[in-house]
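Appendix B: complex inputs.
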Amino acid sequence: MKTVLRKLTIVERQVTLNDAGTTFTLRIRPYRTVDNVIDGVVLTFVDITERNAGQAAILASEARFRMLFEYIDEGFCVIEKLKTAPREPSDFRYLVANPGFERQSGLRDVVGKTIREVVPGESEEWFDIYDTVAATGEPIRFERDLVTRERTLELFAFRFEEEGVSRSAVIFLNISQRKRHEEQQDLLLREKDHRVKNLFSIVGGVVSLSARSAATPAEMATTIQGRLGALAGAHRLIRPRHHVSQPVQRETVLDELIRAILSPYIEPGAAERVVISGPATPVGGDAVTSLALVMHELATNAAKYGAFSTSGGGVHISWTAKKGRLALTWRESGGPIVSGPPEREGFGSQLARRSVAGQLDGRLAFEWKASGLIVRLSAPTERLTP
Amino acid sequence: MIGSSGSDRVFSERENSVLNHACVLVAEDEPFIALDLALAIEDAGGQVLGPAASVKEALALLETADVAGAILDVTLADKDATPIAELLIAHGIPLILQTGVGLPPGMAARFPGLIVRIKPCDSARLVDELAALIGDQPKTV
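Resulting structure:
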């Protein structure tokens, strides 16, 4: 009040009554009488409690929206259509863009520039879409490739009024990764479909081929069951593995495969009947089926005429994988005396031979020694895995 | 090994002369189907070139012998059978394609008259069909 009286100015202060929780503007003004004499001060109190609360709320709300703007994952921008002459291609200026804009689009420092300046060469369809939003006010959700940045965006654009001008806002996400996953899923399904179709044709082949050699329906059923069993055994072994470059890769190792196919012939307590020795050799894809088939046919043959047909017989399977070639030997012993090669090649060995030639690009050779059959398989190791 | 049974002889007697010693190329990488087809061709009195498991192998075999017809699997071990089909068509040799999964894109449009059968196919019927196509061909010396 002394200041007011000395300087003859107005002083304004905000005062808060702590117990009542109300805030006032206190204005102190010199009191001038009708005779133009200063005769004290005038104090006016205006209750501004509510006005303050309103302002605080606006500030808080603004801070919240600012936070949202800064931290959301989505890219966000406001664009305004440029005034263009008729027939001139339309363009839009970025007025605002949040940090998410750069993360999602890969475009930097766009504010103040136009779309054509920032991404020259993008499809005209972008402009058609924004033109439609600007003209009709209809919000639109769409998906498009941002070709120059090699990504796919999912966007939502809508029109709104600001400072008496109509502008558009765009919210968007980079969905390239999701797209890739969807494509991979699709690929997987197609591969599955392919395999199922292939299986039908293989089964068709197994049935008609087995019908040729069987004398009775019962023998045919056994032959088919055995062959399908070997194929199923091979399939069980190959477990899907995921790779970045290849969607699915199926692999097992050779000794596991041989053990699985020969398991019907490995009786408990007679472990010496089958001896398997060789370095860990990965096999996958078609090679698994082919090797399973070869092992099955050789075992079936041994059970009928060879080492598995007597109680004392056995098979020694050994292999090496050197200089890019797999060399596998199947050696039977302890079976009936072998009098020489059969008069005509059986279907089983023909099948095994063709499978090795066709699917493994290898060779299968039979040596009919008196002490037991020896079969030698040779194939490039690169054909063992897909 | 598995002995020969009476049933093949029945096959042979029934269809012995259908192919009349004609040589047929078989390209098929699936061993069961390849062997069954080869035997069906022999049953019908034909000679088998192959079976080849890959395009490379089939093209190499075609260098060594003249064939009267061919039965090709569309998807072979190395790639699809288009190069073999092209070569055969260029020489006017009849062929039948069989597939479990369909034709590669563009193949049907390029060769509109192509005979395509969906697996599983009965081998004997395929051979009969091919024999009919070969029979329709003008005789070349």
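Chain B touches chain A through 30 residues (CB under 8 Å).
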